[in-house]
Specification:
2 copies of one chain form a homodimer. Chain A is mainly alpha-helical. In chain A, 72% of the residues lie in helices and 0% in strands. Chain A contains 7 helices and no strands. In chain A, helix 1 crosses helix 2, helix 1 packs across helix 4 and helix 5 packs across helix 6. The first copy, chain A, binds a DNA duplex (30 and 30 nucleotides) through loops.
DNA sequence: TCAACTAACTAACGTTTGTTAGTATTTGTA
DNA sequence: TACAAATACTAACAAACGTTAGTTAGTTGA
């Protein structure tokens, strides 16, 4: 299996942008082809189907999250630091590849039945690992004891809206953004 | 203007459920008609268009948020308490009318150009009022001084994923859910 | 009792959809 | 330079889309 062609990468990239903007169902192959600069039919020299585009975007981005979580799990640092790194990574993903993250978050439900099962398995595994990180942090006294699921989803969802909110050109650097979100989640808002 | 017919309410309710499940573009009028129990064409005796359905769901739910925020602004209680009430209200909305909340959050981008402008205006006003609540809480020393926008969106987004995650029948009551989310956002996770 | 209204139906419309077939053109290599 | 492969094109497909037209049965009010 050779390296993926540049044209296919372009198709996936433009597709992610359009899916974010208009949704998977709201984006036609002709819309997409126009952005890519070729005819709709010509895209089928590079991709198998519209479904395949969605799959590659979802699983491509998903894999990046998995890899980073594994990497951080492996490191010999304390749990608050691990959580900070994960938060910073989520922010970075959104800033560097926000369109793909948006598709991952919003359009996975249009995956075919079997791919959707596969996707959910991947996502469940990710959440389980992330939850374990919180749980161990609690057990070692770094975090307050609380419902792990609620803590997990409160954190993940707080990170999610960065994608809806962040616009390049706002007067907030990604470092400040990650720092303030970390601060609020770690220390709360109460003075 | 008389009261809205029961059939129209049924259409809106079933539409919200389908839009949540398959998206606005992914839901056909024939899908919807089947859930309602009549033919697609018959629905046009009750609604003007598919777009109108989306509008009524988005603005209907939006109005509820506006009203509750105004109500809480009016009350003579301190800012941490106001924030707690808003958090509890968001949780309640999701539990009581999760489908409409999902449409409000995810499908507003399929509104017609003019309705979308109107929607954004409504949403901006809501966010501005909510932000003012946080800002005043900071100025009075109840909350830590921090970037108000980031605090606002961290909180709103943390609440948003409740809709994606909450399933009736999980062993978490809506009171516990609101309490734990409040606790994490107000006091942080760090021990 | 009859006219008006409501709400359902069937049939069909013009578009748009994802995709395929068949063909031309460009590109890389011997 | 010539052959082969990759990649583009045009044309068309069947299916699904939102919506309209025309009609029919049942209900309501005068």
């Amino acid at each position: 299996m050779k390296t993926r062609s540049a044209k296919k990468d372009l198709i996936l990239q433009e597709a992610a942008k359009l899916f974010r903007e208009k949704g998977f169902g709201g984006t036609s192959m002709r819309d997409l082809a126009e952005k890519v600069g070729i005819e709709a039919a010509s895209m089928y020299n590079h991709i198998r189907s519209k479904d395949e585009i969605l799959e590659e975007i979802c699983f491509g981005a998903g894999r990046k999250y998995d890899e980073q979580l594994s990497e951080i799990e492996r490191q010999d640092i304390n749990y608050p630091r691990k959580l900070e790194l994960m938060i910073a990574f989520h922010v970075q993903m959104i800033i560097e590849d926000g369109a793909a993250v948006s598709v991952l978050n919003n359009d996975w439900k249009f995956l075919s039945a079997e791919k959707m099962t596969e996707f959910k398995t991947m996502r469940n595994a990710y959440e389980k690992h992330f939850a374990a990180l919180l749980k161990q942090g609690m057990e070692q006294g770094f975090f307050k004891p609380m419902n792990v699921s609620i803590a997990l989803f409160t954190i993940l969802s707080a990170l999610r809206w960065v994608e809806l909110w962040y616009k390049p050109g706002r007067n907030v650097s990604k470092e400040d953004l990650a720092k303030d979100i970390s601060a609020l989640l770690m220390n709360g808002i109460k003075a």
